[in-house]
Amino acid sequence: MELSQQLSAFKETHQYRSLKEIDRKDGGHVQYQGKDFISFTSNDYLGIASNKGLQEAFLKENQSDFFSFGSASSRLLEGHSSICTKLENTIASAYGKQACLWMNSGYHANIGLMSSLPQKGDLILSDKLNHASIVDGLKLAKAQFERFRHLDYDHLERLLKKHRDNFNKVFIVSEALFSMDGDCCDVKKLVALKQKYNCHLIIDEAHSVGAFGENGLGLCEAEGKIENIDVIVAPCGKALGAVGAFVVLSAEWKEYLINTCRSFIYTTALPPINTAWLLFTWKKIQKAGSLRSQLEDNTNYFIQKAKESGIDTVSTTYIQPIIIGDNKDCLALAEALNQEGIIVSAIRYPTVPKGTARLRLSITSNHTKKEIDKVLDMINHYKKSETHADTLVK
Ligand code: PMP
């Protein structure tokens, strides 16, 4: 099919996507074309990325240092800055792991890991709802892969029983907090299975690092299982308020990635200024217990209010999907909320399975209770008053 026909088909099936320019945002609020909106679309769960006070403190603290705004080569080509060494050492020791590898993004990290670490003769078992970057990595992998039903560890165990003896190494891969469903993997069960079947466990903490655990290390910290996880991938563009991703792992696996991981080798490194900013936010995050409590408080408030107003909530975290089902209805509801000054993402196939289009609300520590009331009231209002998408948007 011609590209133009495909684009038309996207429009007909309400899968079409377009970009929009914003004036400013602060992890819970955005301004578009001079108009203010409450936003439930940001992954800046703790409001770090847009915190002016932190930005000023960063610039003041780092005034005497020279951090370039471009890195000019891949890390292997010309080397990396001392701030990069400091970041990797600081993070490895925070996790009590041998090593940390700082990479350009979570996407780079996941496609690189999946395609580099597991070898021919190995097997990767991946949760069916794992992020696209893991799925794309699986497609590039030298190892065979199979997907187990989402959070269905009986299914995972059946696969392990069936396949374990036929493969050299077996890697189990799961997100910690699933980005589109807001549910969490059961770290303890995964560790138990990994130990029972002598496998390796890779956990992607994209949406949980910073916001879970006493020191913000993520869900594995909250579950007391960091030492049992072989690889933790932590994309830094969400609660950490930065960019890039770090991977904590053994020294040997780091060395292997440096030598073979194409998404690490063949890309220009992130500029030192970004590395310095992450190191700065990382130190703040460790001590950000009050922001985490605020986020938890907002989440509990949202869940309680949603229940009271008869809105189905299936998640217990700050990622709250409200399943609508049909693409058109979901878009219409998002558009109706938009008219009321509220931005909520309408998540559709292929990001989520067909027929499960949803509003995805991400709650942040910056939201006020009043704003949470407003979005829930509006969702309730539109869900109750109009069921047909054509009449929802006036
Ligand atoms: N893993 C998960 C679970 C994600 O949600 C994302 C980003 N949405 C990524 C990896 C990719 O991270 P990045 O944005 O740093 O490429």
From TrEMBL:
Its cofactor is pyridoxal 5'-phosphate. GO terms for molecular function: 8-amino-7-oxononanoate synthase activity; pyridoxal phosphate binding; transaminase activity. Residues 36-379 form the Aminotransferase class I/classII large domain. It holds the Pfam family Aminotran_1_2. The keyword Transferase applies. It comes from the Bacteria. GO terms for biological process: biotin biosynthetic process. This is Pyridoxal phosphate-dependent aminotransferase family protein.
